[in-house]
Amino acid sequence: MATYIVFDVETPNRANNRMSAIGISVIKDNKIADNFFSLVDPETHFDYFNTRLTGIDAQKVKGAPNFSELWKKIEPIMNMGILVAHNAVFDMSVLKRCLNDYSISWKPTAEYLCTVQIGRRVLPDMSHKLNVMCEHYGISLDHHQADSDSHACAEILLRYVENGVDVGKYVKKYKLIP
Fold first, then answer.
1. Sheet harboring 82-85: ordered strands across?
2. Residue 131 to residues 86, 116, 127, 152, 155: CA-CA distances in angstroms?
3. Range of the domain at 91
4. Is 73 helix (H, G, I), strand (E, B) or coil?
5. pTM as predicted
6. How many domains are there within the chain?
7. pLDDT tens digits for 20-65?
8. Rounded-to-integer distance, Cα 91 and Cα 19, Å
9. CATH number of the domain bearing residue 104
10. Which residues contact 129 (CB under 8 A, 6 or more apart)?
11. Which residue, among 81, 176, 13, 152, has the nearest Cα to 143 in the 3D structure?
């Protein structure tokens, strides 16, 4: 089995071009081998909606690294395998925008998996919202907390694999350079 880098981001406002938090769970040899979490100073304003949803505001991220500083820590992790997210197009687009906004060159494309898209194929008769999937599989979740969401997404991916799903056939490429 490949190495999967399961990540989830929280955003400070509706622009969805900056992160206020990131959670990462690394899957190696069919188990979660490592977890990482950081608040991120988005260097922009917080919308009330996002703060209410995530509990993250300007005061909470005070002293946290900005994306450029954080990227130095997480790039080695992000390079270790195939990226995975629940509703991956959202998380991948935030990652892409952060890389571009901070003029960070990474790579032109990244391989990724979306647990929502896989779920729609293998479990077509149910909702694929993260909380619903967690309830279905008996996975604990503190929803809209990046560390909990990434860990839950990793658990969902592992359930798919345990149930015989060839997740490799769902790998796509995401264009990171505009």
1. 31-39, 21-28, 4-10, 82-85, 109-114, 172-175
2. 11, 12, 9, 9, 12
3. 4-175
4. helix
5. 0.97
6. 1
7. 999 999 999 999 999 999 999 999 999 999 999 999 999 999 999 9
8. 10
9. 3.30.420.10
10. none
11. 152
